[in-house]
Amino acid sequence: MDLNTTPSTPLNASDGYRQLVQQISDTYTQGRVQAVQAVNAQLVQTYWQVGRHIVEFEQAGQVRAEYGKALIDTLAADLGLRHGKGFSRSNLIRFRQFYLAYPGLADKGATLSHQLTWSHIVELLKIDDPLERGFYEQQALRERWSVRELVRQKDSALFLRLAASQDKAGILQLAAQGQVVEQPADLLREPYVFEFLKIPEPYQVSETQLETLLCDHLQPFLLELGKGFTFVGRQYRVTINGTHHRVDLVFYHRILRCFVLIDLKLGEVQHHDIGQMNLYLGYFANEENVEGDNPPVGIILSRQKDELLVEYATYGMSSQLFVQKYQLYLPDREALRRELEETLREAGQ
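The structure assignment produced for this chain is given below.
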């Protein structure tokens, strides 16, 4: 055999070789991800321990009251000389705050430190209210939010929007568990906030333009809708007796296993808008659903709604049809917070 003979098929063209390359690539990628997660988990645990050392030193009375305020400054100077800028005054304050906010991290740290980065935790520590902080912590874990997504949901006051329609028990459950989707009503938020479209305040858009903008910003739109939504299509055609109708936006919800139909309205919802959505629900239930699908859900999003008109127009209709408000700009956080505090005060907390 001539050892200098070139193989008829190059090595990198064979199926076995391509499989080897893929295996090595997958192993390497997975290893890097696990390494980053391990480093992050150790960093989070380390920062918590640093905070614990500071608090325990203070609580043991080893620093007199008049020197208490100088402790962080002195630590920052001394530790900075040894380890560099990682021990800045602001970082030490965060480490101390971290321990005080999560004194039981040693027990729950496996979840928190392995799934959330230090940047996530810093954003959580900026929230003073423990109920609100607990909600965003659970929701970030449940929906695997990036830091950017966490910041956006905080800015849009998601917790306050969801809590505004709850009683005391519902608010406390929301804070402890996050938003758990078990039935169609759990999908709802009021108002939905589309500030990510960045539409100038005096500018007026048409329904078609709003629909296009939402599709162009699908990722933040899905984030606003909540966990479990998969985009199916826009202007989805519904043909009945040769007449074509179109649903603005159609999604499928993976958790509830049902279609979710959304119609957009610029003004106030009218009774015929509700009747039209009910028509769409009937069509999807009979023509689009397959075995295993649950009844479809319809959501009409409008700038304004007359509660009494909605009540009468939906009388006797499917409980799967909802009319919710949306707005293009961030909500009034203080008004929502006052509403939350009033609910808790009336409940005797």
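Interim note for the steering committee: The longest helix spans residues 15-59. The chain has a mean pLDDT of 89.
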